[in-house]
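Margin note: ligand = magnesium ion.
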Amino acid sequence: MTLQYILFDLDNTLYSPRYGLELNVDRRIAQFLVAYLGLSLEEALRQRRERIQHYGTTLEWLMVEKGYTDIEAYYTAIHPAGEADILSPVPGLREFLESLPLPRGILTNSPKEHADRILTKLGIGDLFTHIFDIRWNGFKGKPHAEAFHRALNTVGTIPETTLFIDDTPRCVSGYCALGGPGLLLDEENAYPAYPHPRIRDLRELTGFLR
Ligand SMILES: [Mg+2]
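Resulting structure:
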């Protein structure tokens, strides 16, 4: 089937993990867990590692299993206003996205305010038809099948006609399980044995447009 749309992850996909931006988010999540759960850092991260595989996000885990309810306080803590200051425009990124022959969207497990800060910093926010964030998905994000289906239904495509790119293996695997072409962006070569198509640089996605 002919491709009609390209769906991008945001963090560590439209900008490199080398900026350390998502590492900082992870650090703030860890601090939040220690404070909320009243556990040592080690134990909090161990529990998260063990349970996160059943959920799209840490917040979803906290809400389902730990009785957490204050969504806005969580996002304020892990996404402070200056979080994107560490980022700078990626040379050639805007031109590359503009050169793609298909319309584009973003599906992120982060909230809209986070996405907006990043896209503003990168200067590419106007290049996407839709930005699907975690609130829009009712806090049930990737790799839940509903998250993908809701986005594609809105765009008017199906998995078979939509290329999806993400740096998180389980998100790409979740998408491939729906029958869509998924691409793992593995800039740091962390998953050499990944069973689905894998690219090392975002620009290599053009090889999959046909
Ligand atoms: Mg990502």
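Residues 48 and 58 are 7 Å apart (CA to CA).
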